[in-house]
Amino acid sequence: MGVWQLLLVATVMLFGLFGVLTPGVPGTWLVWAAMLWWSLHERTDLAWILLACSTGLLLLTQVVVWQLPPRRFRGGGVNRRLVGYAGAGALLGFVLVPVVGAVPGFVGGIYLAERLRLGGHGQARAATRAAMRAAGTSVLVELFACLLIVGAWTGAVLWA
């Protein structure tokens, strides 16, 4: 696979990560489609293993998300700025503390957005809990799965 195709796959995966944070956009499907495209062009054992594992992980993620309460973006006080902070925090946490840093980074991003908006620790903490109950948990589950897939793909591309 050429450099331009790898950049295109990376771009689709990046759009998928943003899509997870955007209501109504099938972000997980974009990440999976990019992995499928890469696997079909690579045709190595590692590519097929990553495709199978990502398929299984995304199916498991969908089952978990279906078991969670439905997302309520409007009533929970979730806005675009809050989602942006949460996504940036998850990505930063994933990079700084590989894999497990995404969860505290996501929650920390929400807390930071609410702290900047409300000013006080107690109010920001309560608003963070409300946002996580409204939509944060299901978004976090999907984003974490997609970050794992993108991280595995990046490692496979750099390793090969």
State the major sheet.
none
End-to-end Cα distance, whole Å, is 11 Å
The structure class reads mainly alpha
**Total beta-strand segments:** 0
Helix content bin: over 70%
Q: Give the overall silhouette.
A: elongated
The portion of residues forming beta strands comes to under 5%
State the order of secondary-structure elements, H for helix, E for strand: HHHHHH
Tally of separate helices? 6
Query: Rg from C-alpha positions?
Result: 17 Å
The chain-level mean pLDDT equals 91
pLDDT under 50 segments (min length 5)?
Answer: none
Folded structure, characterized:
With 160 residues, the protein is mainly alpha-helical. 82% of the residues lie in helices and 0% in strands. The chain has helices at residues 3-21, 27-42, 45-67, 80-96, 102-118, 121-159. The longest helix has 39 residues, at 121-159. The chain is elongated, with a radius of gyration of 17 Å. The termini are close together. The model has no long low-confidence stretch (mean pLDDT 91).
Topology:
Blueprint: H1 3-21, H2 27-42, H3 45-67, H4 80-96, H5 102-118, H6 121-159
Helix pairs in contact: 1-2, 1-6, 2-3, 2-6, 3-6, 4-5, 5-6
